[in-house]
Target: Probable allantoicase
Amino acid sequence: MKVDLEQTPESQAEHLAQTRINLAARALGGDVLSCSDDFFAEKDNLLLASDPVFLPEKFTAYGKWMDGWESRRRRDGKNDWVIIRLAVTGSVETIEVDTRHFKGNAPGAVQLEYIASDTDPDEKTLWQLLAERTEVNPDTRNLITLARPARASHIRLTMIPDGGIARLRVYGSIELESQNRLPGEPVDTAAIMNGGRSVDCSDSFFSSMQNLLLPGRGVDMHDGWETRRRRQGGHDWMVVRLSVLTQIKRVEVDTLHFKGNYPDHCTIEACRSADEQPDDNTQWVTILPEQKLHAHRNHTFLKELENTGQLYTHVRLNIFPDGGVSRFRVIGYEAGQL
Ligand SMILES: NC(=O)NC(NC(N)=O)C(=O)[O-]
Model:
């Protein structure tokens, strides 16, 4: 997935959504804690995974139904705000303030603040500035890139002065927290919650490669990675950057919900690379030779693994020829932990 240098705000936002981790994602455990006012449209909509829609005919008892968070028109000179608890304390890099479909009712500007705390904020909490007053456009996926990443657990978004925002996405990175593990306990270093991240794939026509690394099992077929039907030969693949240098002991390939479209078989390779995304010169080593896959089930590969004595930074899942996989787990030991 190459970055298009002529990117529009829309394609830039889409690229972030495909390649970065949204620390506020509800699928990871992000939540909306409170807000000053959500008279027209509920605060919880801010974290919906779906793209916002506009239904011209749909009205509620309060006014126009809107797919987002929307407050009343303020007449008191104050501002509206909402507080988000991130799924995990992480390093925040870019915030997307998506005002799609809010045309005559978007805020003029927003301000963002943060804290890094194990407990939820209260009235006495001292918030720190993340991004000072920034103008936002109506009906746009506004991207606010921070000058410096900030470690945050909670975000306060202020609309100046009022209005509606469809979605909020907080892009950043997660680090593996070793203190949460017992000594000698293996860990899934591909899991998003442990700092793993999908960095590249051949195709993600139906659903995102990041879904493969989400917690728990997939809720439906969309909650996985699915490619289009291949007509020109070849095969599909995706690359995960593990959170730490890992000695791999077990891998899992879960085809849950993929019944008429699971891949016929798979192989897995691994490499060691200092780059975020390994290039064409990377030496990949096969760690799992060809294995038959089956519909709608989790496959655990333990004894079938090869070259497991080495330490790896990246893993490539090859699926033949195409299809869908719900989850992918890479369980092993962090270098120096054995
Ligand atoms: N047509 C509207 O959207 N009006 C109002 N908003 C809603 N949701 O009804 C407003 O005042 O912003």
